[in-house]
Amino acid sequence: MDKCYDVIIIGAGVVGSAVAREMSRYKGSVLLLEKEHDVACGASGANSGVIHAGFNVPTGSLKARFNVKGAKLLRTIAEELDVPMKFTGKLVVALKGPELAQLKHLKAQGEANGVRGLKIISKDELRRLEPNIEGIAALHSPNSGIICPFTLNIALAENALSNGVDIRLNTEVTRISKREDHFRVFTKKGTFRGRYVINSAGLMADKIAAMVGLKYFRVQPCRGEYFVLDRASSGLLKRMVYPVPPVRGNVLGVHLTPTIDGNILIGPSAELIHDKYDTRTTGPGLGRLLKEAKLLLPALKSPEIITSFSGIRPKLARPTYRGCYDFIVKDEPQVRGFINLAGIESPGLTAAVAIAREIALSLKKKLALKKNGSFKYRREGIVRVRELPLEERASLIRKRKEYGELLCRCEEISKAEIIDALNNPLGVRSMRGIKIRTRAMMGRCQGGFCGPNIIDLLQRKGIDPDEINLRGKNSCMLTGKTK
Amino acid sequence: MTAIKTEHIDVLVIGGGPAGMAAAIAARLAGARHVAIVERGGYLGGILNQCIHNGFGLELLKKDLTGPEYAQHYIDQVKRLKITVMLNTMAIDITKDREVTLSNSKDGLIRIKAGAIVLAMGCRERTAGMLSISGTRPAGIYTAGVAQTLINLKNLMVGKRVVILGSGDIGLIMARRLTLEGAKVISVVEKSPYPGGLLRNVTQCLEDFDIPLILSHTIIEVEGRDRLESVTLARVDRHGNPLKSRRKKIKCDTLLISAGLIPENELSKKAGVRIDKKTGGPIVDEEYHTSVPGIFACGNVVSVHDIVDWASMDAEIAGASASLYSSKPWHRHHALEIELDNEISYCVPQILRGSRDTEVSIRVKRPIEKVFVGVRRDTMLSRSAYHEILIPSEALRVPIKAGAVEGAENLSIFIEKSSSIKREHK
Predict the structure, then answer these.
(1) B115 with B10: CB under 8 angstroms?
(2) Model pTM greater than 0.80?
(3) Which site in A442, A449, B83, B399 is 20 to 30 Å from A142, CA atoms measured?
């Protein structure tokens, strides 16, 4: 063990990856550790993909500050890192009279937080904007948007990597010991030294904090189930539609979210659970989702469901700021050099880059780091041929033939895109890795047609059939060859 | 910028499976000069290539062939008739004016203006995701067709201890195939009180291999974080709802889903073709003409066929009609929608114009015994035939003469218990 990193970041979700990327603006040595086989394996890869404007969070909270700032920053960062993003706007819909007061409250809270453009609209105006949506009035937020959560997380990590950050996947932290001027971070794959440790371990943040003796918070997993509707349903609505948030539960309620790729998400539910890995979907949970969604969207008679999934919010067990379950963004005074970024649930996806920028700036000062003169602020993603104008698409195929062969028919993903995903800079080789990088296997046939072709490509890359996995080495797809 | 090349073709067939090939051959034989097949896969024959079992061609070719042999029979004719074949090519757009945009690696993007189009894209499988089974999402859950592709075309094994949900034909065939490959097929679970596939497959694939078929049951939960570890079996009531009692956990590493096929009509919808909600495919007349003039459809894209022979036979009509249309477009106004008895779930063709004698394929909603199936023209009974039993997994083809349609105000297909109809029949 020789090298001592300036900063070791634990957890390569969107928060950890954003910190890694923001740190790579400076000439410091940074290590990003992730226990799973890829980035975006926890809540960062299973959420609504919403850019929140910032009216749902209490004024004065860290959530409010980082949300509003993050929403602004994302506009630039998404453009720099080639992340699909769209400001569709959002409606919070009141279904009955008593909910009108809550719309007004949200508007006032949003304005106090610095959110612009909020407007309460009438039933007629609501009908004009979203003809299929029920409601007596709504809060319209034009500056709310949608973003591809996978691509955001991947892009941040890839950009960090290309700017010199070391990234180790499949490397679970088991123990941390504090020395005089550094930490020793023990993992299943060796021990690393770092002057600063950033805990962005999401659901496991309490476990990591406890390793240095900090036990003042506990992460309470809260499962949210979703349905994914076929792209054929995309005509049902243009923007996000939320109910007035339920009084209890500290959640936003079951909403309808058009995704950046034209699907519609219905969800999430909210259920406190014990096991942080328990991402199951449940019959009753899904049934309730449909029932609640139909209150807002009665046209949803026989939804074209492609699949369902669940994500787990890393909620804090107890409120931390005036009854609000606020983020913990804290340079711990008791354990010098240890920074907790915990309880980053919604609006965490929006807030991540703002939190990261602030943390990176403070570390730059503490470590007296110089600017990284060769910092590459751009990252080029995998080309999405389906979205190109036809002439441009034709030129591209002329340059590289594999853009013409569409392996995934449902999402129109070309062989070139899949090959590029296979050769991703992070070296992820799982089926899910290809899926979240290209959308292949995410469409209506769920990999029925392209799945076997992708397995072919993996084999051609020299991967044994026994090693081809869904998401990490224990999730083998196959049991060898036939007789 | 690269300009996109435009080509003119008499008949463009989208899909190179059994239906597409039969349609292209028929179009060529009926006189169309330039016929082309567009196939997104790397070979002709489609799903037939992975169907290495026999039983193909018994009805139409009077031979007992394997899937690849059946496909070869048509591939030879496609070659002989000099039909253009574009492999690894996908139609990414289509208009109602029969302009199709194709993408492949050789030519890039090409625009085809076709005199007539035959849609023959086939179908896809209902997935585990669509069924919304509770539980985790581990590796080891496949549709039966994907398992068939992996085993028969890629020589890759999908698992060792297998449960199959749904008794569709592919599931039954795969139960046998997996057993022959050394896997243990624990059971085939079917929600209905009767099997979903052909009776001959139940006998030859399950009974002959002692694989239990558990009717009126379903899988309500899957477990396993990384790879599947178990599934929970539950009995269902008459409405298909799982019962609280009588649940059982089965240890397994693989779950195959064989719960039905869905005609793949995303392209048809882009062209504005009217879709029958019951079949999930285009509404067609006896020439397999869709609601959009010059666009025909055949095979599993119209409705899922029990055996390939029928798909090929319908496709021949579609192809020949498309050929005629490409040389001399027509516009027929007269159309009679076939009315259906309550016991029948759907029929294909759905509408008749009296342009030719035809066979209308019907499917019953549930098994019924000792019935007469007949055609009623206005108030007159024009034909009826006795059947010992009708089951949902085996469609019945009801012949209707062109003459029966001409001048008729309405036409219906009915099913009646033999006792109630006897008088009328005599």
Answers:
(1) yes
(2) yes
(3) A442
SS3 assignment, position A474: coil
Residues A391, A309 share a domain: no
Cα separation, A225 vs A318, whole angstroms: 23
pLDDT tens per residue, range A401-457: 999 999 999 999 999 999 999 999 999 999 999 999 999 999 999 999 999 999 999
A52 is catalytic: yes
Chain A CB contacts of B90 below 8 Å:
406, 409, 412
Surface of A (401-430) touching B: CB under 8 A: 401-406, 409-410, 412, 415
Q: What is the pLDDT of residues B166-192, one digit of tens each?
A: 999 999 999 999 999 999 999 999 999
For residue B344, what are the domain limits? Answer: 339-425
Q: What is the ipTM of this complex?
A: 0.95
Write out chain B residues lying below 8 Å of A448, CB-based.
Answer: 124-125, 127, 143, 145-146
Q: From CA B398, how far away is CA B390, in angstroms rounded?
A: 13
Task: For residue A327, give how far its alpha carbon lies from the nearest alpha carbon of chain B (Å).
Answer: 29
Contact B157 A478 (CB under 8 A): yes
H or E, element range at A173: strand A173-178
Distance from CA of A292 to the nearest CA of B (A): 17
Domain boundary among B309, B330, B351: B330
Q: Which residues form the domain of A448?
A: 385-467
| Cis status, amide bond into A131, omega within 30 of 0 | no
For residue A65, what are its two tokens? 């500050």
Structural tokens at position A280: 């199951």
CA–chain centroid gap for B54, Å, is 18
Mapping DSSP onto H, E and C, the string for A382-446 reads: CCCHHHCCHHHHHHHHHHCHHHCCEEECCCCEEHHHHHHHHCCCCCCCCHHHHHHHHCCCCCCCC
Decide if pLDDT at B211 tops 80. yes
Return the closest-CA partner of residue A119 out of A149, A150, A89, A80.
A89
Same domain as B354, residue B318: no
- Tell me how many domains chain A contains: 2
CATH of residue B219? 3.50.50.60
Distance CA A208, CA A220 (A): 14
CB-based contact A347:A54 (threshold 8 Å): yes
Number of domain units in chain B: 3
DSSP 8-state assignment for residue B44: T
Tell me which of A388, A441, A478 to substitute to probe the interface with B (most B C-beta atoms closer than 10 Å): A478
Same-domain status, B102 and B153: no
Q: Which of B330, B347, B382 represents a domain boundary (last residue)?
A: B330
- Token output for B314: 């319908």
| pLDDT for res B425 | 46
Interatomic CA distance for residues A438 and A401, integer angstroms: 18
